[in-house]
Design brief:
The protein contains four helices and six strands; from the N terminus they run αααββαββββ. The protein has a six-stranded mixed beta sheet, sandwiched between helices. It is globular, with a radius of gyration of 16 Å. The N terminus is likely disordered.
Length: 159
């Protein structure tokens, strides 16, 4: 099970690279145009979620969650797929444990072969409430395109 969980981020990281290497036809040019449009809105959404995360604004983060189940993996805890409201509560409680956050957007990409799935990777610097030791984490968000907008379907915080 642990190997499978580690494999998912790796595959999501490598999938766009494979997609770029496989292109080459005029059809690929049309798909690239569609992906560029989807990519722009995905980047904008990722930036909004990043700002909300930085500010500890759990309500704004929750406003970007999918209406289906949300997969949460927060530094080793693995509540898995939760209903949206429950995931929002878990994220609220989690974010309240940190302060002095800084989030930098690292990478945003569509999953190759899909205009309806994407991901964003952030570099998160923070410290736990009541401490001064800076912690550095990787925040990984998986997105799906639903009802005309990008929504978060997966949240992973990796040490």
């Amino acid at each position: 099970m642990t190997r499978r969980l580690l494999l998912v981020p790796l595959l999501l990281f490598l999938t766009p690279v494979w997609g770029e290497m496989a292109g080459g036809s005029s059809w690929a040019g049309l798909a690239t145009g569609l992906q560029a449009q989807g990519h722009d809105t995905l980047v904008a959404t990722a930036q909004q979620v990043g700002r909300a995360w930085t500010g500890g604004n759990d309500r704004a983060v929750a406003g970007h969650l999918t209406t289906r189940r949300v997969a949460l993996y927060l530094e080793g805890s693995q509540p898995g797929g939760l209903p949206t409201r429950q995931a929002a509560v878990v994220l609220r409680d989690y974010l309240r444990g940190y302060e002095g956050c800084r989030v930098e957007l690292g990478r945003v990409a569509l999953v190759a072969g899909s205009d309806e799935r994407g991901f964003a990777e952030f570099h998160w610097s923070t410290h736990r409430v009541g401490t001064s030791q800076v912690l550095r984490r990787t925040l990984f968000l998986g997105f799906s395109y639903e009802s005309g907008r990008w929504l978060v379907e997966e949240v992973r915080v990796l040490p």
